[in-house]
Amino acid sequence: MKNVITEVEEKLKSKEYKLTPQRQQILEVLLENKDKHLSAEDVYTLVKKKAPDVGLATVYRTLELFVEFDIVHSINFGDGRKRYEYGDDSEGHHHHHAICLKCGKITEINEDLLEDIEKQVSKDYNFSVTDHELKIYGYCRSCKI
């Protein structure tokens, strides 16, 4: 975790921002919950346990700053709440998501299912693809009808 914090600190410094103690607390919560898709309110609740002085507005501003610096990714699963997850672009494309329409469970799909389509779009439409996102909606094992 220390390596990531140092990297984020350097990334912010490169554009004359600081990794304040509040921002570091928010980053640590995201790192501790890498496998979850947290809303700003979720992050706020977890940060408050460690740093009661951090406000919800600070969490929102910090998350948007982290998105701007490509430290975290924001995802909308169609339920009106933006979710955030720590993401390292050095691994290539983002993973995909399967979303249960009944219970809301989100399952990560790590296989890159759209690579061939990207190549075809690039070739056929002379289009430079930089990223993609795939959301699959249905019912999880527990909720299947």
From TrEMBL:
Details of cofactor binding: Binds 1 zinc ion per subunit. Binds 1 Mn(2+) or Fe(2+) ion per subunit.
Keywords of the record: DNA-binding, Iron, Metal-binding, Repressor, Transcription, Transcription regulation, Zinc
A GO biological process held by the record: regulation of secondary metabolite biosynthetic process
Molecular function GO labels: DNA-binding transcription factor activity; transcription cis-regulatory region binding; zinc ion binding
Reported cofactor(s): Zn(2+); Mn(2+); Fe(2+)
InterPro entries recorded: FUR, Fur_C, WH-like_DNA-bd_sf, WH_DNA-bd_sf
Binding site for Zn(2+): C100, C103, C140, C143
Pfam families per record: FUR (PF01475)
Recorded family membership: Belongs to the Fur family.
PANTHER family recorded: FERRIC UPTAKE REGULATION PROTEIN, ZINC UPTAKE REGULATION PROTEIN
Name listed for the protein in its UniProt record: Ferric-uptake regulator
Organism: Desulforamulus ruminis (strain ATCC 23193 / DSM 2154 / NCIMB 8452 / DL) (Desulfotomaculum ruminis)
Lineage summary: Bacteria, Bacillati, Bacillota, Clostridia, Eubacteriales
